[in-house]
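Forwarding the complex inputs:
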Amino acid sequence: MPKERFPRWQKRLLLFAALGLALTGMGQMPIFSRYYIADIPGLGWLGDYEITAALHLALAVVLLFVLGMFVAGWLGKGEGRPRLTAAGWQRVVLYGALAVTGLVRVLQNGALPLVEPLAVRYLDWTHLGLAMGLLVFAVSQGRKESLRRSRG
Amino acid sequence: MNRRAFLKTLGTGAGVLAAPTAATTLLARDAAAASGEQLATLYDLSKCIGCGACVEACREAHASDYPQPKKPFPKMYPARVKAEDFSDKRDIDDRLTPYNWLFIQSATVTRDGAPVTVNMPRRCMHCVHPPCVELCPWGSAVRYDNGAVGIDPTICLGGAKCRTVCPWGVPQRQTGVGLYLDLLPAFAGNGVMYKCDRCQTRVAGGGKPVCLEVCPEGVQTIGPRSEIIAAAHALAKATGGFIYGETENGGTNTLYVSPVPFADLGAALQTGPGRPGLHAAADVMGKEQNLATAVLLAPLAGLAAGLLRLTSRVKTAARKEDDHA
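Prediction (whole assembly, two chains):
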């Protein structure tokens, strides 16, 4: 039996990281405390910016690592790789742009500020907008295959 | 690649992170601060007589920047969300408010058996790595290239995260003003956060912060951060003084030199909302530095792991072919 192109456990890891990033990303805004969610026993950490920011970074490590593996596997297949469906392309664009805007934001806070101070807002809004886009995609198209079925 | 191989590769990645060279390069987060572009200010507190001329000048210079809220405020939900309103208390000048971005904090301590009163002009410290800027989810808190930190009142939604993450709780909120009124005022946002921007407009035009210009005692000086640090050390050495702001929160662009230890001053101060203390503030953003470095290396580690997987597959296929030959 041929090996799966992207093993199921990697896809599950990606889903876990993406859901965690969505939750901790929301936690960067002051909403969990406002709307009593951080008052639910066991969810107090959602109202702690230090914890949610650290978790957002830790989950980003997992997501970016898996995405990197997918990219290497995809490119490495050369001409033999199956074609992407429309949903596949949408996934690539959404995850890719989220990863790039996130990485640029980390660089901005660190050693390599690439964005003018007054333009950082557009970076943040794009990252937030893409996350919302991914949520809409997941709800409406989430079950669609990314790869076209190979013939025969 | 199976789970074990995955974990092994992840372990290799962690090893790379620990390698001093990579870490040093990526952790060079103070490069901008050391480049000479960032300006810092130095307060010689032995000179401050607490006359309040700086406070008065600040209020005059920024009068047109102060909030003009619309009343009544839109009702906010849920009920726990409270309005913060200083519009009827604009005269308050003994703490930070949306209408008072600088105040004089005074404390009397005993030094060598004699009472010593120290007056400290307090405002935003303008951190080198400001948590308010680096953690603002909306991009409204801004770190300018000259080392000053400001909040753009045209887009700030008043969530007050900046105040929560600021080691000194500096930014102050005024409800009933700003962008949130045009979005969902009942359910998101709560006004605009205000604080000292170190007279960004004046400084960008070649001037100096107004508090510095009007001081009759010449308490404050401004210059490239490295020069200000050197001057602070020279002053502290010459007078037997103590420095605050050089290393607090990982380094700030506001250095105080006091004739008495800041721990003694801090213990004698009245602190609370709008009245920051003098604690040894830990480096808020520094805590995340290792994770941030890991984020930057993760895609490369993933690519490397993917390539390893491909290589092992090619080898396995070649071996199988040999077996069948």
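Chain A touches chain B through 50 residues (CB under 8 Å).
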